[in-house]
């Protein structure tokens, strides 16, 4: 048998001297995150159900803005993500994911917006003319 031993084997279960660089939250931190999450859920519900804004586009922007804030609250208070955790790799993975989501959404919206222009030329006019002839 080798005289070389693993350093982790020598430590008991009660040895909590390690530091993984991530922040460990307390009950107060979890409750703060919970209260913020409830508020950030109730406000969009009230905005939509109460018809607070006359314009639906304004309502959509407010709801999307509050959703983005809620994502940040969840990442900070529940997932314990910050720029220092995991040596910055978590933040790099998040940025990469955001870039992919933006590319996918932008491409999808672009295709759907231009779908009308890319249809066969005679189809739209024939359909409109046949709709007039219907009783």
UniProtKB/TrEMBL annotation:
Localization (cell): Cell membrane
InterPro entries listed in its UniProt record: Cyt_c_oxidase_su4_prok, Cyt_o_ubiqinol_oxidase_su4, Cytochrome_c_oxidase_bac_sub4
Annotated Gene Ontology cellular component terms: cytochrome o ubiquinol oxidase complex; plasma membrane
One example of a Gene Ontology biological process annotation: electron transport coupled proton transport
Sorted UniProt keywords: Cell membrane, Electron transport, Membrane, Oxidoreductase, Transmembrane, Transmembrane helix, Transport
GO molecular function, one term: cytochrome bo3 ubiquinol oxidase activity
Membrane topology field: Multi-pass membrane protein
Assembly and binders: Heterooctamer of two A chains, two B chains, two C chains and two D chains.
Role summary: Cytochrome bo(3) ubiquinol terminal oxidase is the component of the aerobic respiratory chain of E.coli that predominates when cells are grown at high aeration. Has proton pump activity across the membrane in addition to electron transfer, pumping 2 protons/electron.
Annotated NCBIfam families: CyoD
Family designation: Belongs to the cytochrome c oxidase bacterial subunit 4 family.
The name this protein goes by in its record: Cytochrome bo(3) ubiquinol oxidase subunit 4
Species the sequence originates in: Luteibacter rhizovicinus
């Amino acid at each position: 048998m080798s005289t070389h031993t693993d350093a982790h084997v020598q430590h008991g279960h009660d040895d909590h001297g390690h530091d993984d660089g991530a922040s460990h939250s307390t009950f107060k931190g979890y409750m703060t995150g919970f209260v913020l999450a409830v508020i950030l859920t109730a406000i969009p519900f009230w905005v939509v159900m109460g018809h607070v804004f006359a314009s639906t586009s304004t309502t959509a922007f407010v709801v999307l803005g509050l959703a983005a804030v809620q994502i940040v609250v969840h990442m900070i208070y529940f997932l314990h993500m910050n720029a220092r955790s995991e040596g910055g790799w978590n933040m790099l993975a998040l940025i990469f994911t955001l870039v992919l989501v933006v590319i996918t959404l932008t491409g999808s919206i672009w295709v759907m917006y231009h779908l009308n222009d890319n249809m066969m030329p005679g189809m739209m006019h024939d359909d409109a003319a046949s709709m007039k002839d219907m009783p």
